Amino acid sequence: MFTNIENLFDYSVAQFEAIDHLLTMGVGAHFAALVFFLVVSRFVAPNYRVATALSCIVMLSAGFILYGQSNLWSESFAFNGTNYELSDSTFSNGFRYVNWMVTIPCLLTQLLIVMNLKGTEIFKKATILILAAWGMIVTGYIGQLYEVSNITSLLIWGAVSTLCFIVLNWVVGNVIGYNRKHLYGNTGSTIWKVFGLMMFAWTLYPIAYLIPWFMNSADGVVLRQLLFTIADITSKIIYGMMITYIAVQQSAARGYVPAKKVLNLVGYNHDKSVD
Ligand code: RET
């Protein structure tokens, strides 16, 4: 029996291609962003550079998983002259969940790094956040196995997962609230925007999870892959860029010259140092 509703329907050419294109765009966006993060990491002071390195890891990891999803999508369905119907293999979203076990800890840790938390404090907060995230993912993974066979189980596991999600958001909100004043270079307000972006992007994943419950159709499947793609780009790429921006601003405020240069705070030929 299939685990995911993607395998239940036939797709019009437009529906099939829309999903194919969304997945392919996701691959391209993550690998392009990888180049961006590699290039800008030299403007980030060494004490924040791990935050940008973590974005590189997230880009690679998500880029490869999406490459796999996009191949799997085109292998799983075959054109029968009118529609695309299920063929040799079956499609699964489960790979995404497994990937989150790696990417979410990276995303959370990079936030803690730019919050200027120190040694033991980072370790303590990261442990709580990662455990909550893993709890959320594992229960969500189990839940999605039931999306075809038993919607009640999908909803119950989803509710348990949401409890972990709430704990996670609560801890992140608190960390930001308490430590915001320790940020350099007026980035205390940018970090709230990061939190807002995170709340928006991360909430798209549970909506995608619930599609089998409220839109069990081929169009629902297209909507799900669209939500996943928007969520991926905002929660990893745009988020990573904001984190790196905060890292560069703080680097400059703390006197790191390459950061000052890229922000035009000092000239190349005439040194108008601001500190
Ligand atoms: C699940 C199950 C249903 C309930 C909730 C979920 C939350 C998922 C989230 C995923 C975030 C993923 C990210 C990936 C980045 O690479 C597991 C769908 C609340 C929040 C940020």
TrEMBL record:
SMART domains: Bac_rhodopsin (SM01021)
InterPro entries on file: Arc/bac/fun_rhodopsins
Gene3D superfamilies, per database record: Rhodopsin 7-helix transmembrane proteins
Keywords: Chromophore, Membrane, Photoreceptor protein, Receptor, Retinal protein, Sensory transduction, Transmembrane, Transmembrane helix
Membrane topology: Multi-pass membrane protein
Keyword Cell wall biogenesis/degradation: no
Transmembrane stretches, start-end: 22-41, 48-67, 97-114, 126-143, 155-178, 190-214, 226-248
Subcellular location per the Swiss-Prot or TrEMBL entry: Membrane
SUPFAM superfamilies xrefs: Family A G protein-coupled receptor-like (SSF81321)
Family: Belongs to the archaeal/bacterial/fungal opsin family.
Protein name as it appears in the record: Bacteriorhodopsin-like
